[in-house]
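2 proteins. here.
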Amino acid sequence: MSISNQMNRSDTKSERILQVANNLAVYTFLIGALPFTALFLSQYGYLDGLYYYTLGVPSKEHRIYYSGLFAIIIVNIVIASFITHAFSEPVEVEKKKKQ
């Protein structure tokens, strides 16, 4: 294998590592930010329009339960999205020469 071919393989490998690290950072941010945002938006009534068309607007005593349920649903959506994205990435199989 020539030196330039080895350098091209290492460049694509380092690009792949950066892409994976970027995806991990994005999903880490999403799994931290989206559930809390959904929880507080729901708790303070900003999502009452959504509740009106689905479950009905919760009372003040039950609003925290619906907010927590909504945050749990958001976490599961983010996790499912991450898993789907991870399994849809191409897999590189390196063939080793028999020596």
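next one coming up
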Amino acid sequence: MADEISSFWGPVSSTHEWCEPNYVYSSYIAEFFNTISNVPSIILALLGLVVSLSQRFEKRFSVLHISNMILAIGSMLYHSTLQQLQQQGDETPMVWEMLLYIYILYSPDWHYQSTMPTFLFLYGAVFAIAHSQLRFDIGFKGHALWHLLMGFNSYFANTFLMYCRAQQRGWDPRVKHLLGYFPYVKIQKPKAP
């Protein structure tokens, strides 16, 4: 911790302090760059949510974009406080989002319509309970860069899934670009008879 600034949140209780000095810029933000590097994830998830809603995609895609926002906000809270409870709020949504991706990718082909969603839900619940009772310690270098790249990856992956699902549903998907760079899916649903 920087000598001049003390922590507003109290002593660090998380299992890991990442690769940047704590409380250098503010007594409210433990890891400044790991905290602010989540902002693009929130903005891109909001963009994806707006596109998903405006194109009337299935609700699962709105949930996916909201999940991206929750994950980024949880990560911001964790890296700004370095508290164990907020660490769980960062790590548990990562697992839930992975389960949501599995649901979206494989749900059209499931032969057991209730078994797989039930299994995914139970897996997520058991993980959350275990995670609240146990301490997991994983380390990465360049964690702020990881946040930044994962924000873009989440947006691009969600856009790809929306395109694939629109193709499966016969909605004539087209890839358009916002600001000449950010792809989004424009669909034309067939007229109801």
